[in-house]
Design a protein that fits this description.
Structural class: alpha/beta
Strand order of the largest sheet: 1-5-6-7-8
Number of strands: 8
Mean pLDDT: 85
Number of helices: 13
Bound molecules: zinc ion
Helix content: 40-55%
Distance between the termini: 50 Å
Largest sheet: 5 strands, mixed
Low-confidence stretches: 1-16, 268-280
Oligomer: single chain
Length: 294
C-alpha cells in the first residue's frame, strides 16, 4: 500500500470536487511528512521508544473503542527540534500538520512536558481527517481534523477548535494515567520533573478540559448514565468522524448551546480568523454552561 493510499483509506472527502489530481497531490503531501525537515535533530533511543509507545497505546485505545485504524505513526513522521530553535515551530511547543501528516515537536529539558506534547500531537495524528479539493485545480484544504471543522471556502469560518483540543488533551491524560506503571518503568521520570508538571501554571487547554469534563458530567447526569459512557461515545467520534454525540449538548443545555461550544478556542491561534466576529472569551462560554448545568 502506498503511503498516500493508507491515509486516503482512513479519511473521506467532501463532495465531487476531489479530483484524481487532488488525490495525487494529497498522496504526495503525505509522503512529504516523512521527509526530514531542515533543522530537525536526530532522535535518541528513548525518544524512539516513546514514539513507539504512543503509537501502540493510541492504537490499542482505538481498538478498545470498537474501531480499527490502518494508520501507524512512523518515527520518520516525527520531527524534533532543539529547545532554543527559533526558526521552526513559530514559538510553539508542537503541532501536527493535517496536510502532510508530519509531527513537529520542540525538545524540553523536562521530559514530562516534552513527552506529553509529543503524545498530544500523536493523538492529533490518529484523529479523523477529511479534506476538500476543488474542481480543475490541484487545491487541497483540511476540512476536518478530529472535531475541528474549517470551512474550505470561507477561511475565516471554523468551529470546535477548542473542543477538539480539549478532547485530544483529555485522551492524552487518560491514556498516560492508565499506563502510568509502564511509563514509570520505561521512562523513569524524575520526581522534580513530575513535580514541575503538577505545579505548572494553568494553560488554556487545561481550562478547556475542565469545561469538557463538566459538560460530559452534565449530559451523563441528565441521561442517567455513567460519564464514562458519554466520554467513550465522544472519543469514538473523534477517531471515526461521527458527530452523533453533538446534539446531546443542545438537548441538555438548551437550543443554541452547541453553537456556543463551537466557538471555544477560536480566539487563540491562527491569523486568518476574523477576530471581531469570533472572539468569545473562555469565561463567557464557561459561565454559559455553568449557569445551565442540569
Ligand atoms: Zn493540539
Amino acid at each position: 500500500m502506498e503511503v498516500g493510499e493508507k491515509f486516503i483509506a482512513n479519511s473521506t472527502y467532501l463532495g465531487p470536487e476531489m479530483t484524481a489530481e487532488s488525490l495525487k497531490e494529497l498522496s504526495r503531501s503525505f509522503q512529504e511528512g516523512l521527509r526530514p525537515t531542515e533543522g530537525e535533530i536526530e532522535k535518541t533511543a528513548e525518544e524512539l521508544l516513546w514514539i513507539n509507545f504512543a503509537n501502540h497505546i493510541i492504537k490499542q485505545e482505538i481498538e478498545a473503542l470498537g474501531l480499527s485504524s490502518s494508520l501507524s505513526l512512523e518515527p520518520e513522521r516525527v520531527h524534533l527540534f532543539s529547545e532554543d530553535d527559533i526558526t521552526n515551530l513559530k514559538g510553539g511547543d508542537g503541532y501536527h500538520s493535517p496536510v502532510t501528516k508530519g509531527l513537529f515537536v520542540r525538545k524540553k529539558a523536562n521530559r514530562v512536558f516534552y513527552y506529553r506534547t509529543l503524545f498530544h500531537e500523536s493523538v492529533h495524528f490518529f484523529g479523523y481527517h477529511n479534506y476538500h479539493g476543488e474542481k480543475d485545480k490541484v487545491w487541497l484544504k483540511q476540512y476536518r481534523q478530529g472535531f475541528f471543522v474549517r470551512q474550505p471556502k470561507k477561511s475565516r469560518h471554523e468551529h470546535f477548535r477548542g473542543l477538539n483540543e480539549a478532547v485530544v488533551e483529555l485522551i492524552t491524560s487518560d491514556l498516560l494515567n492508565q499506563h502510568q506503571v509502564e511509563v514509570t518503568a520505561k521512562f523513569k521520570f524524575r520526581s522534580e520533573e513530575l513535580q514541575a508538571y503538577r505545579t505548572r501554571p494553568l494553560q488554556p487547554y487545561d481550562s478547556y478540559v475542565e469545561l469538557l469534563a463538566f459538560i460530559i458530567y452534565g449530559i451523563a447526569k441528565s441521561r442517567n448514565v455513567e460519564p464514562q459512557k458519554i466520554w467513550s461515545f465522544l472519543k469514538r467520534g473523534y477517531f471515526n468522524g461521527s458527530m452523533l454525540s453533538f446534539p446531546l449538548v443542545d438537548k441538555v443545555y438548551g437550543r443554541g448551546s452547541l453553537r456556543v461550544l463551537g466557538e471555544l478556542g477560536t480566539s487563540f491561534g491562527k491569523e486568518d480568523i476574523d477576530v471581531s466576529e469570533t472572539v468569545h472569551e473562555f469565561d463567557k462560554i464557561a459561565s454559559y454552561f455553568k449557569s445551565r448545568q442540569p
